[in-house]
Design a protein that fits this description.
With about 250 residues, this protein is of the alpha/beta class. About 35% of the residues lie in helices and about 20% in strands.
Amino acid sequence: MNLTVKNFKLPQNPALVVVSDVHIKTEDDERYLQLCQLVDEASRVSAGSLVLNGDIFDFFFGWGGYFRGKYGRLLRGLDKLVDSGAVVWFVSGNHEFGLEALSRHHKFEVVPSEGKVWNGRNGEKILISHGDLLRFDPWYDLYRRFIRSHFVSVLAVIFPQKLLDLLTLWFARTSRKKDRYRTLNHGKIIESASNKLNESLASTIIIGHFHHPYDEQLGNGKRLLSVNSWDQPSCLAVSDNGRIERIFPDDNLS
């Protein structure tokens, strides 16, 4: 299928590219085609690392072969990027389940939503985390433990996968309508991000999840950044000298 969407143009040899919250629904989704193009672009410009920072899909169940087949083009593209010498991480978001199963079939690294510190070529340390665990919501924590339990995973495996896909996409649409009225507690999010940085000894944290383009100086040289929702597609590119820029499709780069 030919791409009919705006293409990303990345700078040459970026040390790191981070994308999150694409919320792909189908293999014909325009966002899916655009993300596949971004992965190909990362290979073309010889990116050192690519991180998918969660909620790449509106729903994905890694233990089901149905989903691996549905999104095979992207998964094969990530393997090809690994073969080119790049480091590729897939951080689990709150819309993805059983991603650890992908390690049996693919070459990229699966990272839990808590995240992991990326070490740059010149010593910079960036904590990349999906961000949902920065929430201060005990009900969400309880829901998260239940939905990721072994019991629920077993039920999902035996449930017809296509029907599971349809039901979860319907649930995601319903939940998103409620989220329009949710108010973010920016102060608490920033405070929690700062605490995570202190724990990890990193200087920068990159998150997603909140669908808000954070760029906050936290003091002591620390920084909070986020990739916004793909309602307005973008990614973050980090150069060898640590410069971070937000890239939009069809940006003209010198």
